[in-house]
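This entry is set out below.
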Amino acid sequence: MISNGYRSGFTRLELMVLLAALIGVAAAVIFNRVYGGPYRNWIDIALIVAAIACFTVACRAWAGKWKACRAGKERRRREARTAAIAEEERRKKEQQRQVWRKSRIDKAKSAVDRLTEQWRRAENLTEEAELLPAHGETPEEADIRDVMAKTVADLAGQEDFIVAMQQAASGLEEIPDDAALSAAVSEVKGDAERRRRRIQRDADVLQESIGTVKILRERKKAEALRVAGVIHCLACGFGYPLSNFCPHCGVRSPEKLTCARCGETYMLPVHWLGDAEKTEPLHCMACGHPHEGI
């Protein structure tokens, strides 16, 4: 048996030499018994000593080779165990590396997703701003529309950048070097976050401007109706010329009240009051002064 240069037994030549020596000793014993004469006993002793010496030498050689074989096997087991431990450590490090890479890439993609979501909000607000009619504007509305126009113009060039950010985030997984990946992720996250804040500011400006324009136009509409002698029912919201009852739902029309102390004017929903006798006076909603005669 031969393994890694170590033999656990005799080689064929060694066995042949040992067998020849044993055959020679046996032949010498037989020859001595036949032709030994008066020296037979001494020759037997010499042959026994020679056989013992030959056997001892052979056993010592076999024991040395057996020990060397066992030492080689033990060394190979240690090497295999060390290699297995090293492979396990390498596998764990590679697994940790993949988890780290995925975490970094996911953070970059999340930043790009937040940017895309903010851009969609800005797009919706842009469409809403473009649908607002421009005719019959007051100077205040015109100033607000100028701000909206500048904001929309600033948002117009953002789409190409967002597409580039999405492509950059999709290509991060193809970067093999960890240092290059970390640098690319930091760059994508930083650019996406800065642009998201910029788009959010523009979207907030658009949302506030649209709301302000709508409020101004509702006020202008209400004022036009008031000047034209048209009121709205406080029960159903139907608009109609001044009359005692709403032609749509039939409840009493609101009464116009003016505070004697502060001059605040508002419409009183008398259909809420009913016909029961009032034990407590009504008060002005601006200063709290009691109204008399109600």
